[in-house]
## 1
Amino acid sequence: MDTFDILIVGAGPAGLAAARAARRRGLRTAVVSREAPGGTCVHRGCVPVKSLLASAAARRVGVANAPDWQSALARANEIAESVSRGVAFELARIGVSFFLGEAFGVDSGQVRVESAEASTFELSARHILFAVGSLPVRPGFLPETKRVLDVDGVLRLPSLPRRIVILGGGAIGCEFASIFADFGVETFLVEREAHLLPNIDRDCGVALAGALARRGVRIVTGTVVDAVREGEDGLRVTTADGQSIEADFLLSALGRRSVPVTGGYCVCGDAADSVRLATWAEASAEAVVAALCGEEPVFAGDAIPACVFSYPEVATVGVSEVAARARGMSVRIGKAFFRANVRAAAVGETGGFAKVVADAETGRLLGASIVGPGASDSIAAAAIALKHGLPADSLAGVFTHPSFGEILSAACVDARVLTADGKRRKRPSAVKR
Ligand SMILES: Cc1cc2nc3c(=O)[nH]c(=O)nc-3n(C[C@H](O)[C@H](O)[C@H](O)COP(=O)(O)OP(=O)(O)OC[C@H]3O[C@@H](n4cnc5c(N)ncnc54)[C@H](O)[C@@H]3O)c2cc1C
């Protein structure tokens, strides 16, 4: 039986980060996965969906040979396979032993692996870590029919539907609404809460809803789907407030649940946490490996940014204005709009804004959100400030000109709470040069 210092089940972002962290510490490391390296992120999540978004963008702006749905799906799958091969190469390069097969816990120091070729073998290790991910939630009222899809089903759809209903206005629902809208599909998006992206700053969801609606997405908020019936030609979807929608397909994007792990094993990533982000999964895995090695784990969850890669992009980090006020925090808000951003004007993308939340007394940055071009990249600057407890002012003047990131500087300047000599400002005022 092969023996390792650490054995990791699952080769998604969490398993891979754990393997890298273990190898950095010189541990003999094995990874077992029932599919090629990459996990949900590479095979069914971040990678193929972002590829579809890129194809959708080409259609939106009218690129002459923009891919049709079949070519877009083929491209997404090719990219996923290529990234997975890259990850497999990296594992080999850093000295991780990779085993393809399904792992079952035997006891605290051993797993049984059933490989695709039906051979079974056992592996043992001092530490065993389960990074087995999550699965889509499928509510019981949805009928068992090929017209009701989860994300995996969409990634296998041979042709575009004429009409689709998407359940859930969270990140995944909004990304697919954006994709389908750009591919010309009549799209309905149903969200139970009063606005889209209910877990982040309200202004973001409202702005995104406006942008999707302008591209023809019919957005239904503040109600739930209470029945889905299949007829000869498609589905009839009814909502609790009495609306009735006919569609060819329904995409359920109502979130995910952790894959259960029994037997007292260490768990990390989506299998352990309710925040389901690749970056979060990686950070959680790093912390678990540090703890297994007797080190003080570092996990700065509050400073991990998230992005919805719809058009427009929506990126956020830290607390929202509403959450800060609900916690009784005294805050100052800064806001700036892309219509005054030179780069945005140059590329004709002037919709959207940046909003920052700063502590009213100290000026410390508590949160930031951006809706608009470059949001997914620009938010990193706010994440650094947040991670290091810096004031919002620290983001003023750190971006090149002209750049999308300047929107964040402008919002931070707008939120200024301190004068240069550290005294508290009464109101934000113009910056003196
Ligand atoms: C549509 C979609 C879009 C997303 N977009 C983003 C995004 O833009 N940005 C972002 O940060 N996050 C995104 N995510 C979330 C991200 O994909 C997950 O948070 C991340 O993949 C979790 O990593 P993980 O390693 O914990 O689990 P996973 O990536 O799910 O990996 C777990 C792996 O373990 C394997 N496994 C499970 N059980 C066993 C077993 N018994 N034996 C062997 N192998 C096993 C699974 O097959 C899988 O390969 C998206 C998710 C989805 C579904």
Note: DSSP finds twelve helices and 22 strands in the chain.
## 2
Amino acid sequence: MALIKCPECMNMVSTHATVCPNCGFPMSLVDSYNDYLGFFDSMAADVAFYVVIKRDPSINSIQKRFDIGFNKAQQCFEKLEKLKIVTAGSGQTSRKVLLSEEELYNTIFKHLDSIKNDTSLVNKYVDNFIKNAKRYLEDGNIICTKSNLKMALYLDTKNQEALYAFDKIQNLH
Ligand SMILES: [Zn+2]
């Protein structure tokens, strides 16, 4: 019998289980949880924050705000759809945002929890988040500046650079 790790409680669970017997986590979501590296590397996490906070799940807005092409924006939305952050969009029906800002942070923090014990991975993520925050600040994208700093601080609560930057942008919109 093959076993996989439950991302919620970290117990090993049969691949045949639909929910984790320990905590009830829907195991169908495990693939997307294991996909978290791709999630953060693909800009999808940044798009997720933007879409959830602005309540605007339109490809057009994302293309403009992030200065990316249609295909890349579409790929980000497919990831958000898989993670149940937005509904599927088909033809005339536009997508809907399914999570509140707080729920999104909880989801993202759960992804980050799964790397917290790996110091080198944590350092790599924190560096990336701070680098992204600076880039988004230059672009005037304060939503993504804040979310990247919050993620950096979640992994490294005492990070001086992130604390200083977060303090400075706290009142910007
Ligand atoms: Zn579990």
Note: The radius of gyration is 17 Å.
## 3
Amino acid sequence: MALIKCPECQSEISKSAASCPKCGKPLKKKSSGLGCLLALILSALVVWGIYESEKESPTSSQIEQMQKLKEPGQSLTDTARRLRRMSKRFNMSLEKIVALDMFYHEQGLTLDDLEKDLLLKNIK
Ligand SMILES: [Zn+2]
């Protein structure tokens, strides 16, 4: 096992020790880079978890579409949530709702217009 010198008491201690067994000084681990990466992965997982928390998770291309669909001042997660709520409410697949919303956006209409239309005539 590799040994290092404790910066505090100079005694030889294991490199893998979290703290010096003699004086108790906590030893720095060379993991700040890994910690950053971990934090990044974690935050990505949190964002993903918002999608995952609901049954049907959007594919990466759907997320790409949602990026285009989101209204100014709205976050992607808001848009994703809203689309998902609508897919449940109108008993349509998320894919279909996204496709419809894309169609509406191309015509300069918004998700509100789509929702109203769905409420009125239940487009299939
Ligand atoms: Zn020590």
Note: Helices lie at 32-52, 60-69, 76-89, 94-106, 111-121.
